[in-house]
From TrEMBL:
<dbReference type="Pfam" id="PF20516">
    <property type="entry name" value="PDDEXK_12"/>
</dbReference>
<protein>
    <recommendedName>
        <fullName>PD-(D/E)XK nuclease-like domain-containing protein</fullName>
    </recommendedName>
</protein>
<feature type="region of interest" description="Disordered">
    <location>
        <begin position="1"/>
        <end position="55"/>
    </location>
</feature>
<dbReference type="InterPro" id="IPR046797">
    <property type="entry name" value="PDDEXK_12"/>
</dbReference>
<feature type="domain" description="PD-(D/E)XK nuclease-like">
    <location>
        <begin position="131"/>
        <end position="332"/>
    </location>
</feature>
<feature type="compositionally biased region" description="Polar residues">
    <location>
        <begin position="42"/>
        <end position="52"/>
    </location>
</feature>
Length: 351
């Protein structure tokens, strides 16, 4: 699974203007409060505007198909979803830190090292000093780049580009308008992009051969929700939505939900996975379909990861490895046998 990474689309920088005159002092007030003094909440004023993000979630619930975002699954849960959660969580974060890096971690981050439990370490006697050195340099580059983005308040594009080693197999994608959820009240489509997508690469001989046989472009077939000339002809598995450290977690989820919906077409029975990235923190969501509803649950608390520390980055690599393994072992065989092979046979029957 791969794909040459492209720069994230240009996005407008968010600025927070903090007016000192509008701040509330933390010092004891010297102004006496009389019985006539009234404390008003801005929430009750007519000028206060509703939350655009909350409005998006309301629209998604009324869209066709309905998209339900929940912290926990409710009602009937497909066995495929339970199996995926178990695959992601079992042994997560165990045996991921080479013992040979322990001294470097303690030197680099003494405070963080003392709270690392014993179970993440494994005997790295089989690893050469050179291999350990390469691994350490990679981890430090990610940690320092993420720290730099955090300290200097860099925007979304910087988090995408500077913490790029974790997203090297993903690229920004626009969603096909025909696959976007339809809002009932005004029949407009919610148009969103995903910052990155995980694809089954045509560099693999088996995948390339099957894509060629289907010949998506020539007969108008599209397997993914992307509008990109090349990537709409490839199977996209996961979406990643990135926000800066002070970005909105709910806003990221709303955009991810819109991206994951087209992956869950009527016959798309297996659950898919999506990430939201808010600064250092990576959150995982599972999307699946029940009847005419697409459910997106998460974040999955048992597999939280971040880029604040070496330990957190290694947990993120563990998570990424588990997601890719599910895609290769479970998702790809199903897509190949149930979706692509029939399309391939149908194509040849028309020739």
């Amino acid at each position: 699974m791969s794909g040459q990474r492209q720069p994230s689309p240009s996005k407008r920088r968010r600025t927070n203007i903090d007016d000192p005159d509008q701040r509330t002092s933390s010092l004891p007030s010297e102004i006496p409060l009389s019985e006539r003094t009234k404390l008003r909440s801005d929430a009750s004023t007519a000028s206060r505007q509703g939350s655009p993000t909350r409005d998006v979630f309301n629209q998604l619930r009324l869209a066709k198909p309905a998209i339900i975002c929940e912290p926990q699954a409710t009602g009937s849960i497909p066995n495929t979803v339970l199996s995926l959660r178990k695959r992601l969580a079992d042994g997560f974060g165990q045996g991921i830190i080479p013992r040979g890096l322990e001294s470097r971690i303690r030197e680099s981050d003494p405070a963080g090292a003392v709270v690392i439990p014993e179970y993440p370490y494994f005997d790295s006697g089989h690893m050469s000093d050179a291999a350990l050195g390469v691994m350490w340099n990679e981890l430090e580059e990610i940690r320092l780049q993420a720290r730099h983005c955090d300290i200097y308040g860099k925007d979304e594009n910087a988090w995408c580009l500077d913490v790029g080693p974790l997203s090297c197999n993903r690229q920004s994608q626009q969603i096909d308008a025909d696959l976007l959820p339809m809002v009932r009240n005004n029949l407009t489509r919610i148009n969103k992009k995903a910052d990155y997508a995980l694809a089954f690469s045509c560099r693999d001989p088996e995948v390339s051969s099957l894509y060629e046989r289907v010949r998506l472009g020539g007969h108008g077939y599209s397997i993914s929700q992307s509008t990109d000339t090349f990537n709409k002809r490839t199977v996209l598995f996961s979406g990643v939505e990135v926000k800066p450290d002070d970005g909105g977690k709910k806003e990221a989820l709303a955009q991810l939900a819109i991206w994951l919906k087209p992956l869950d077409l009527a016959d798309w029975l297996l659950p898919t996975i999506g990430y939201t990235v808010v600064g250092h923190d990576w959150y995982v969501y599972i999307a699946y379909r029940i009847g005419n509803e697409v459910h997106i649950i998460g974040p999955i608390s048992s597999v939280l990861a971040d880029t604040r520390s070496t330990y957190g980055i290694l947990k993120l690599r563990d998570l990424d490895s588990r997601v890719k393994q599910y895609a290769l072992d479970v998702y790809w065989p199903w897509v190949r046998d149930e979706i692509l092979q029939p399309l391939s046979m149908h194509t040849f029957s028309e020739d």
